[in-house]
Amino acid sequence: MKIICDRAALLEAVNLVAAVVPARSPSPALSCLKLTAARSAGVGSLTVSGTDAEVSLEVTLSQVDLQQPGVAVVSAEKIRQILQTVGETDPTVQVEVEGDSCQIRSTKSRFRIFVFPSGDFPPLPDYARVRASGAAGGGGEARALFTHPAGSLLKLVHRTAFATARETSRYAINGVLFRRDGRRLEMVATDGRRLALCRTSIKGSDAGTAGGVGTGGAGGGGGGGGAVQCIIPSKALNLLTRLAGDPEEPVRIAVTDNRVFFGFDDGDGAQETGQPRAVLSSALVEGAFPPYEDVIPKENDKKATAGREDLAAAVRQAAVLTNEESRGVRMHFSGKGRRVKLSSRAPEMGDSEIDLGLTEYAGDDLEICFNPHYLTDVLKTLDEDEVIVELKASNKPGLIRVGTDFLYVLMPVNLPA
Q1: Residue 90's pLDDT is what?
Q2: Hey, how many other C-beta atoms are within 10 angstroms of the C-beta on 73?
Q3: Cβ neighbours of residue 295 under 8 Å, at least 6 residues apart?
Q4: What is the DSSP secondary-structure string of 178-214?
Q5: Which of 5, 95, 250, 358 has its CB 3.0 to 4.6 Å from that of 338, i.e. a possible disulfide?
Q6: Which residues of 8-39 are buried (b: 16+ CB within 10 A; e: fewer)?
Q7: Rounded to an integer, what distance in angstroms lies between the CA atom of residue 340 and that of residue 356?
Q8: How far apart (Å, rounded) are the C-alpha atoms in residues 209 and 145?
């Protein structure tokens, strides 16, 4: 293999794919990246691939000066360090593989690192075959295949993934429920104390499905426009947010019985090589996602409308005087003057009181306590000017809404009087 390519573009691709590689692995090949130099449609390309055996990522660079095609499996950490230290004074680098070593040359530098046998690198899921099977009408592996704009997809991720559980034996809530029903697409996440749900509409002619799919009891649907759902690991969604650039870029989404694929710059907008610029694939989380619709309050009769930034600032101030024993902020909603008073108290530290005006308030007065971190988590993911807070009683879950496409359920906390 011998290529010359843009150093900055190669470094960006290596940084992206290296995020998949596990820090420690019993298999040396899993700590490596696979570099594949090839020619397609008369254009040279370099594909950088990595996997941790569950999540896989392939990033393809086009417009590469390909002098000799080939494959190299190299240490992810070492090639990343080399490209970083070469510096911006070298716009291009030459990568050449001879025997069991890979040489990386810039204007003034030369590095030689050993390569691993290409056969040791685990095979990656075949996105092209999965996509073809879905396009053929559902007779193959793909059970759902559709396209959605990157910006809208990332909005769904940002507004839900933060609410997933961390290090729990309930594996199903370590990921985010991804559900498509006809033209409605929604994502749901919960850690048992809060729940975030965001939905949007699928646009385009391919909003249908190649069939139904269920995973680990999460449910499935029939053919046509039936419900299709799966649980995607948080790690895959975090990587997804790093891949999107142009919010209008189409992302091809394919779901099989046990995997999900996201293809960037696929289809009509593909690179000159005919390949997508990036393909992210992940195994799905097994298990049954909780029946989330059952925990969404339906009878909250107290409704407050507040400025999002003002409410977020008030919560941050009140959170200053909380600790592990008193991790809660009291919120006293009052119809008189349309106000909410936030207060907190930490033994042997002090207390706080913040007064905030509301745009609207309907219902009886109510005092309720919430974990301030759970409030700030959701408020910083939103960009609307106002949020609606719906309440029922001090011991009932609260609900934060923005429009008709986002809601956040939050359990109250009990604090000593």
Answers
A1: 83
A2: 22
A3: 190, 195, 397, 409
A4: EEEETTEEEEEEE-SSEEEEEEEE--STT-S-SS---
A5: 358
A6: ebbbebbbbbbbbbbeeeeeebbbbbbbbbbe
A7: 5
A8: 6
- Give the residue-averaged pLDDT of 253-266: 90
Domains of the chain: 2-120 (3.10.150.10), 131-293 (3.10.150.10), 296-410 (3.10.150.10)
How many C-beta atoms surround the C-beta of residue 291 within 10 A? 8
Q: Is the dihedral of CA 82, 86, 90, 91 positive or negative?
A: positive
What SS3 class is residue 136? coil
Residue labelled with tokens 């397609």: 40
Question: Residue 384: which residues within 8 A CB-CB, separation 6 or more?
Answer: 308, 402, 403
What pTM did the predictor assign?
0.89
Q: Where are the beta strands (DSSP E) in 275-397?
A: 278-283, 302-307, 329-334, 339-346, 350-357, 360-362, 366-370, 386-391
pLDDT on residue 266: 56
- pLDDT given for residue 209 in this prediction: 47
Q: Find the length of the chain.
A: 417
CB atoms within 10 A of CB 253: 21
pLDDT at 213 over 90: no
Q: By C-alpha distance, which of 122, 126, 153, 124 is closest to 142?
A: 126
Q: How confident is the model at residue 269 (pLDDT cuts 50, 70, 90)?
A: very low
Q: What CA–CA distance (Å, rounded) separates 291 from 122?
A: 36
Compare 117 and 206 and report the one with higher pLDDT: 117
Tokens describing residue 111: 């590095």
DSSP H helical ranges for 320-365: none
Which run of H or of E encompasses 232?
A: strand 227-233
Two tokens at 57? 């990522």
Burial class (CB in 10 A: 0-12, 13-18, 19+), 299: exposed
* pLDDT single digits (tens) 390-405: 999 999 999 999 999 9
Question: What pLDDT shows up at residue 223?
Answer: 36
Amino acid letter, 367: E
The residues pairing with 409 across neighbouring beta strands, listed in sequence order, are 195, 399
Tens digits of residue pLDDT in 157-178:
999 999 998 876 778 899 999 9
